UniProtKB/TrEMBL annotation:
Protein name: Uncharacterized protein
Domain of life: Bacteria
Length: 124
């Protein structure tokens, strides 16, 4: 999710965090009130900061989660996902997208557009 959509989809982020806690994830960091903020990455030469929505651990492995919800700026969302996917491959993390009912088609079309077929979706 991009920063412009954080307020709009706060309820979805809260329910995603609760879902991950129920699945047994620990040390959850989220870009949300009450949680420690995950590490941000700055895009050189611009004013864009990339922050994963949720970072958690399970069975000793770090997982990066990003919410896939309809957005006004899908191009920025695509570049964020490509960066997070590359980062997770370099550091041996797991990258997953969390999507909800009403956003499946948008998510699948966006993934197909950037050829990231290897990304696994968590459907809530």
């Amino acid at each position: 999710m991009i920063p412009q959509d954080k307020i709009k989809y706060a309820k979805a982020l809260r329910s995603s965090i609760a879902y991950l806690e129920n699945l047994g994830y620990s040390n959850i960091k989220a870009d949300f009130k009450g949680y420690e903020t995950p590490k941000s990455y700055h895009k050189k030469g611009t004013d864009i900061d990339v922050t994963p929505d949720i970072v958690a651990e399970k069975e000793g492995r770090k997982h990066i989660f990003d919410l896939s919800l309809k957005s006004e700026r899908p191009r920025l969302l695509k570049s964020k996902w490509l960066f997070l996917n590359s980062l997770s491959q370099l550091k041996s993390y797991r990258f997953r997208l969390i999507t909800m009912r009403g956003h499946y088609k948008f998510t699948n079309e966006t993934i197909d557009a950037i050829h990231l077929d290897s990304i696994k979706l968590l459907k809530i």
